[in-house]
Design a protein that fits this description.
Blueprint: H1 6-9, H2 15-28, E1 34-35, H3 47-57, H4 72-86, E2 96-99, H5 101-113, E3 119-124, H6 129-136, E4 140-145, H7 154-167, E5 174-178, H8 190-203, E6 206-210, E7 236-241, E8 254-258, H9 260-273, H10 279-290, H11 294-316, E9 329-333, H12 343-354, E10 356-357, E11 359-360, E12 371-375, H13 380-394
Parallel strand pairs: 1-10, 3-4, 3-5, 5-6, 6-7
Antiparallel strand pairs: 2-8, 7-8, 9-12, 11-12
Helix pairs in contact: 2-12, 3-10, 4-10, 5-6, 5-9, 7-8, 11-13
Length: about 400
């Protein structure tokens, strides 16, 4: 009997598991860990969305199988959102599919379009599903360094992108872009997307855009969609999520929209793997998209207040953290006295000595070393307490 499996062997040890195991052990001993490690929204889902779920679940027949591509009303609601927010026209039938969160959509699209040996270009550091979804599918990864000394340089990144495509043999199947970025909180302009689309069209490469944080932005203009670029739908598909926008992470509703061929491929794979999300959840998600949108601004304002408290409190504690322009994360350089320890050891030190959990940057790729990701998922008082705890060990 085999006890080793090729796909599992291709995956490196899951660094988050090491951090989470330590967190669980400390909590079992009664430690109150202030947890910034996971991007898990703590705010309640807006009331009108919860109410629609309650109403729908009582109706006859709602416990039956749904449909893997999503109910028609929800696909229409997502198309209406893209028109309203980005002035992008989408056909709900052929250019929109509902996913079980954007993570599932990315992973299943990887299965749909990848053969063993295919090359995928992925940013580094990056949200783990971007590279590992394709590694699981059998692809070969080419990593594009996304940060230089903690700074994202769009022009340099575009140069790297085109050079990587030209030098790859065989040619890459797809390139992944993700802005606002998880974990770095970096944002880009529509002009950046225009250059990415130009390169992809030139070399015949698909673009997979992760726009999960489209509505979590602060001091800048709303993040654009790559589908706003003319001809982008010829080669691009974009993933969005209800998780952060409406504090619906556990509801597991996301979308893929754009290129017909990629949407069709994803729909075919999903037809074999799932029957879609629970229908009342999809009805409630449609109510979220079609209903009052003031709740989005309330959620955004909560994150912004937490961001401001985090930056000021940590600065007083001796830890200077750049102010993120978007997302629910801060990308923080390790304090100088811990630089030689690495991000994983620093994260453990914070838990053991300051009762604070963060995500080590190396968990997002080798170029994330030297940083930790801090999620804005604790209230302002807890953030201030974390800063006081950290001040003791930095001294």
């Amino acid at each position: 009997m085999r006890n080793e499996f090729d796909r599992i062997k291709r995956l490196p040890p899951y660094i988050f598991a090491e951090v989470n195991n330590l967190k669980a052990k400390l909590r079992s001993r009664g430690k109150d860990i202030i947890d910034f490690g996971m991007g898990n929204p703590d705010m309640p889902t807006p009331k009108h969305i919860r109410q629609k779920l309650k109403e729908t679940v009582e109706k006859p027949g709602t416990g039956r199988y749904s449909t893997s591509k999503g109910i028609n009303g929800l696909r229409k609601a997502q198309a209406a959102y893209y028109k309203r927010r980005f002035n992008v026209n989408l056909d709900p039938e052929d250019e929109v599919i509902v996913t079980l969160g954007s993570k599932e959509g990315l992973a299943n699209l990887a299965q749909a379009i990848t053969s063993p040996g295919d090359i995928i270009l992925s940013p580094n550091p990056s949200y783990p599903i971007h590279p590992y979804g394709f590694i699981i599918a059998g692809a070969s990864l080419r990593h594009l360094p996304a940060m230089d000394d903690g700074i994202f340089n769009p022009d340099l990144y575009l140069e790297r992108l085109e050079r990587s495509i030209k030098e790859s043999a065989p040619a890459p199947v797809a390139v992944i872009v993700s802005f606002p970025s998880n974990p770095t909180a970096q944002v880009v302009s529509l002009g950046f997307y225009k250059e990415v689309v130009k390169i992809a069209l030139k070399y015949g490469v698909y673009i997979l855009s992760d726009l999960a944080y489209a509505e979590i932005y602060y001091d800048n203009s709303p993040p654009p969609s790559i589908l706003q670029v003319p001809r982008a739908k010829e080669i691009a598909v974009e993933f969005t999520s209800m998780s952060k926008t409406y504090a619906m992470a556990g509801w597991r509703i996301g979308f893929a929209v754009g290129n017909i061929n990629l949407i069709k491929a994803l729909a075919r794979i999903k037809s074999y793997l799932d029957y879609g999300a629970f229908t009342p959840v999809q009805v409630a998600a449609a109510a979220a998209l079609n209903g009052p949108q003031e709740c989005i601004e309330e959620i955004r304002n909560t994150y912004q207040k937490r961001r401001d408290v985090l930056i000021k409190s940590m600065s007083r504690s001796g830890w200077d953290i750049p102010t993120p322009q978007a997302s629910m994360f801060a990308w923080a350089p390790i304090p100088s006295q811990y630089k030689n320890r690495g991000s994983l050891e620093f994260a453990k030190e914070l838990m053991l000595k300051a009762d604070v959990a963060v995500a080590p940057g190396v968990a997002f790729g080798e170029f994330g070393e030297g940083f930790v990701r801090i999620g804005l998922v604790e209230n302002e008082q807890r953030i201030k307490q974390a800063a006081r705890n950290i001040k003791k060990i930095l001294k």
